[in-house]
User: Fold these one by one.
Assistant:
Number 1:
Amino acid sequence: RAGITPGKNYTFTLDVHSFALANANNVAAKKIGKDLGREMDLLFDYKPSPVVAIQAGYCMMFATTNMELIKGGDAANYNAWAYVMVKVSPTFFMHEFTN
């Protein structure tokens, strides 16, 4: 994970994930190695107020043929998705309990 905070209210982050099996496997006489692929996530977080946060992300999955053997599909296809999330976290009740 690498990130930069150029301003008080926003952050850019790059996350890299590696997917792997605990052990190599044999399925239907095919040897499946441990490495399943990598994913890169580019995230933008913006917090305009203490109650509201906005996150936008773009994610790319680079699967191996091992992933293809387990999940199906074509590992050579470009796999990417994007999203926008708005999080609202108001405080409705706050009480401090004392002994």
Number 2:
Amino acid sequence: MSRISAVGDARHQAVVLPAYGLMFDATEPKLASNWQHAQQLASECRVLGYDDWRLPESHELALLIRHDRRKPAIDTAFFPNTPTNDWFWTNTPLKSEDASGSSCAWCVYF
């Protein structure tokens, strides 16, 4: 993992996983009330000049889980603003008979 900052800013705004070709927003997350709201917030994200942000797939977000710790199960050195008492939506819809159509998706709880 690598941190990326804007020119002249000591704080990092994103984290890159070069081996996977992924970049994650590391700024203060806006918490969504449902999956559609989460998708909207991701599409409205503007970090480091990029405007093509999306929710990560469940397997992509799972890359951030630290299996050697809990509470939080995310590396706070890379993601210092991540609340550890809330779910984070992914772009992976639930494919289950119990899921209510397109309104449900997998979440990760750090």
Number 3:
Amino acid sequence: MSLLPPLDALRANLQAQMLDPVVLESPEDLHPLKPSAVLILLYPWEGAAHVVLTLRPGYLRRHAGQVSLPGGRFETSDGTLLTTALRET
């Protein structure tokens, strides 16, 4: 038995809260914003679902010391935002 709810249950929960999940394949879908992508990774541990977060180093010029989802800025070589999220993760 899975500790995590099925994807359909997660999607229904998001939609019930008016937070439709969106997967964008092209950075042009975000124009004029700076294209970037994150990955929300859920995993079971000790009977509960957990999410992966990153702690940004204190020496960074921007967003130092912040906790964030793994992800970052789209690079042309990525091709898709999905590739960006995977590369950054």
